[in-house]
């Protein structure tokens, strides 16, 4: 999957993560989308390492793994911003 596909998938994952974890985030929607893009990479890497994800394009599995990575990063972001 190309870098553009990862970015688009990350945008989708960021929006889904925001829907799953509503609330006032310190960075707003833009930071959530950036976290979604990073979450797509993190989720994809973790999924590949665990052997549970293989990305051949936009699949339900790919979207779920990317959204999971985005949720993890969003939780970490909220914890870090809460402490500072």
Automatic annotation (TrEMBL):
Keyword flag Iron: no
Localization annotation: Cell membrane
Membrane topology: Multi-pass membrane protein
Record keywords, A-Z: Cell membrane, Membrane, Transmembrane, Transmembrane helix
This protein's record includes keyword Ribosomal protein: no
Chief localization: membrane
Transmembrane feature ranges: 27-46, 58-80
Pfam families: Transgly_assoc (PF04226)
InterPro entries tied to this protein: Transgly_assoc
Similarity-based family: Belongs to the UPF0410 family.
PANTHER family documented for this protein: UPF0410 PROTEIN YMGE
Official protein name in the record: GlsB/YeaQ/YmgE family stress response membrane protein
């Amino acid at each position: 999957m190309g870098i553009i596909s990862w970015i688009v998938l990350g945008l989708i994952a960021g929006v889904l993560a925001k829907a799953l974890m509503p609330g006032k985030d310190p960075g707003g929607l833009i930071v959530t989308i950036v976290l979604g893009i990073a979450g797509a990479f993190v989720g994809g890497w973790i999924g590949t390492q665990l052997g549970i994800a293989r990305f051949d394009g936009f699949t339900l599995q790919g979207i779920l793994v990317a959204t999971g990575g985005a949720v993890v990063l969003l939780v970490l972001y909220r914890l870090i911003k809460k402490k500072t």
